[in-house]
Amino acid sequence: MQPVKLDVHLQESHNGTPSVAKLDGKLVLETVSEFLQTMRPQAAPNLVIDMSDVSFLDSAGVGALVQLFVHRRNQGQKFALAGLTGQATAVMQVSGLVKLLPIYASVAEAARQAN
Question: What is the model's pTM?
Answer without folding.
Answer: 0.93
